[in-house]
Amino acid sequence: MPPIIVWMFLLISGMFATVHNLAVTTSLYWYYTWFDSIMHLWGGALIVLGVYAICSLKHVPLKPTTVLIFSTLFFIMIVWEIFEWQAGLFEPGFHLMETTKDIIVGFVGGLLGYAAAINLRLK
Q1: Spatial contact of 20 and 39, defined as CB atoms under 8 Å apart
Q2: Tell me, what's the pLDDT at 123?
Q3: Could you tell me which residues come within 8 angstroms of residue 6 by beta carbon, excluding any fewer than 6 positions away?
Q4: DSSP output for the chain
Q5: Which of 84, 81, 69, 65 has its CA nearest to residue 24?
Q6: How far apart are CA 18 and CA 12, in angstroms?
Q7: pLDDT at res. 119
Q8: pLDDT above 70: percentage of residues in the chain
Q9: pTM value?
């Protein structure tokens, strides 16, 4: 049986995917520009939780070190921003500002996820 952190990650990931799908379907990202920031915040926390979940599996010989957690967070955020740029999911005049905001908000979400994990004694 997988550890509880894996089930938490799967449940919260499913909720994230459902909200994202709803947001795309109903154009929430375009009607409410702040909604993107909420999803980046949530996504940052979810990435950190995912690192803890993967490291908790028996056959994964990794420990969720601070370096691993924040390297993974930074890498995924950069790859996501490249995807948004390649897919044309930005306003041309605001791309640099939007990308910077997304990375900062995602990092803050990661810090919140890390703080929650520390408080829940997941480390």
Answers
A1: yes
A2: 52
A3: 53, 56, 57
A4: ---HHHHHHHHHHHHHHHHHHHHHHTTHHHH-THHHHHHHHHHHHHHHHHHHHHHTSTT------HHHHHHHHHHHHHHHHHHHHHTT-S-GGGHHHHHHHHHHHHHHHHHHHHHHHHHTT--
A5: 84
A6: 10
A7: 86
A8: 98
A9: 0.91
Closest residue by Cα to residue 43 from 98, 103, 109, 97 = 109
Return the number of other C-beta atoms located less than 10 Å from residue 39's C-beta.
20
From the number of C-beta atoms within 10 Å of its C-beta (0-12, 13-18, 19+), residue 96 rates as exposed
Cα separation, 13 vs 1, whole angstroms? 19
| pLDDT (tens digit per residue) in 53-65 | 999 999 999 999 9
